[in-house]
Amino acid sequence: MIFERCAKEAGVTQEEYEKEALRYVSMRTKIEPEELADTVYFLGTDTAPHITGVLLEVSGGSEWEE
């Protein structure tokens, strides 16, 4: 997991690293792989035939500014 590796490199616990990282996410939650898969699936269905040329972000509202 990315948080685990980054926490180890930073010399903090995974929980501490995750808490700090989620400060920059509006929804304060991690995105699960299934959420990305659901989005890709939706875009490939007849439900979304007119969605073209847009940036569709599945990020929980990442804002990496202070």
Quick rundown:
With 66 residues, this protein is mostly helical. It has a domain of 42 residues.
Largest sheet: none
What distance lies between the first and last C-alpha atoms, to the nearest angstrom?
25 Å
Q: How would the global form be characterised?
A: elongated
Q: Give the helix level as a range of percent.
A: 40-55%
Uncertain segments are none
Order of helices and strands: HHH
Write a structural description.
By secondary structure, this protein is mainly α. The protein has a domain at 2-43. It is built from three helices and no strands. The mean pLDDT is 90.
Descriptive tags:
elongated, 66 residues, mainly alpha, 0% strand, 44% helix
Q: What does the secondary structure layout of this molecule look like, with pairings?
A:
Layout: H1 2-10, H2 14-22, H3 33-43
Helix pairs in contact: 1-2
